[in-house]
Amino acid sequence: MRSMLHFMFLLCIATPVLGELEYRLQPRQIAVNTWLLEGSTEDFDRNNGGNIVNTAFILTTAGVVVIDTGPSKRYGEAMRRAIAAVTDKPVVKVLLTHHHPDHVLGNQAFREAPIAALPGTNRRLAEQGDAMAENMYRLVGDWMRGTELVLADESLEPGLLQVGEHRLRLLALSGHTGADLAILDETSGVLFAGDLVFYQRALTTPNSPGLDIWLADIDTLAGLPWRLLVPGHGPLASDDAPLLQMRDYLGWLDGVLGEAAASGADMNEVWRLPIPERFAAINLSRYELIRTVSHLYPTYEQRVLREPVP
Ligand SMILES: [Zn+2]
Question: Counting C-beta atoms within 10 Å of the first and last residue's C-beta, which end of the chain has fewer, N or C?
Fold first, then answer.
């Protein structure tokens, strides 16, 4: 009996808990030479390991271009295996759409490739990256083990980037974080919008310079000649439904925050405002409204205070 208990004890401590933490990424070919790794539309938690984000890669004649590296070292490594299942060509470029943790903390797995970002993205990463990584450890736990911040080593300018036969148009926009890269692959017609576009998942605003700026970016994206749109979060689209939803949602948010400030409402009243029925399919809208109020409402209140009394 004693040896049986002893055996069971050994079995317990020998169980590789970390072995269960597998992202099981399934790359899906969405266009010529183009694979998408679609995350869930949830918030970070210990079940999803932070895989709430869309990442992608493009296989060119010159090698592989990676777009965003995911929320952890473990994700980055899983992404590398997913790429290796498709090609043995090397990764020749990593493009970061912006500095948020779910998009960049897989960088460690791509250290040998040049990691490129807008200068503003790298600056924000240097300032906020460690704190963001720490927060991710708190939110998703062991999935993050071994993850450390790796900064970009190349600065991107807006314009054309040719990699093999793929012509990538890089756009430097700013509505989500102040430095947001959108990538239009002119060869395949795929637009990688990064977090300028959330679809069926409420947008996040911790670093947004303003919803009006973000709305202008949506107009810029709408004017591009794309055929497929990859949002930063949420499902792929071949029509402009994600852009219409973003415009509608941003316009509604901007309107309610402005009206609430004008009426002198305080934050906890704004948190409870009704969310229109037409946004029912957007996951986490209440949760993100509460966060957005804490991020942006003070600016709306200050604007009201600055306006001259008629
Ligand atoms: Zn983001």
Answer: C
Cβ-based neighbour number of residue 274 at 10 Å: 6
Cα–ligand 1 centroid distance for 168 (angstroms): 21
Instruction: Residue 21: give its domain's CATH number.
Output: 3.60.15.10
pLDDT per residue as tens digits for the range 161-173: 999 999 999 999 9
Decide if 202 is inside a domain: yes
Nearest to 220 by CA among 260, 195, 193: 193
CA distance 158 to 283: 32
Q: How far apart are CA 25 and CA 14, in angstroms?
A: 26
Cα-Cα-Cα-Cα torsion 195, 31, 86, 140, nearest 10 degrees, comes to 20
Structural domain including 109 reads 7-238
Q: Which residues pair with 66 in a beta bridge?
A: 57, 94
Are the C-beta atoms of 181 and 194 separated by less than 8 Å?
A: yes
Cβ atoms within 10 A of the Cβ of 225, count? 9
User: How far, in Å, from the CA of 166 to the mean position of ligand 1?
Assistant: 26
Number of residues that this document lists for the chain = 310
- Residue at 301 is within a domain: no
CA of 68 to the centre of ligand 1 (A): 11
Q: Output the CA 264–ligand 1 centroid distance in Å.
A: 30
Residue 98 CA, ligand 1 centroid: distance in Å: 7
Work out how many domains the chain is built from and give that number.
Answer: 1
Domain-located, residue 36: yes
- pLDDT above 70 for 12: no
CA 53 to centroid of ligand 1, rounded, Å: 9
- Token pair 């977090």 is found at 195
In a domain, 289, yes or no: no
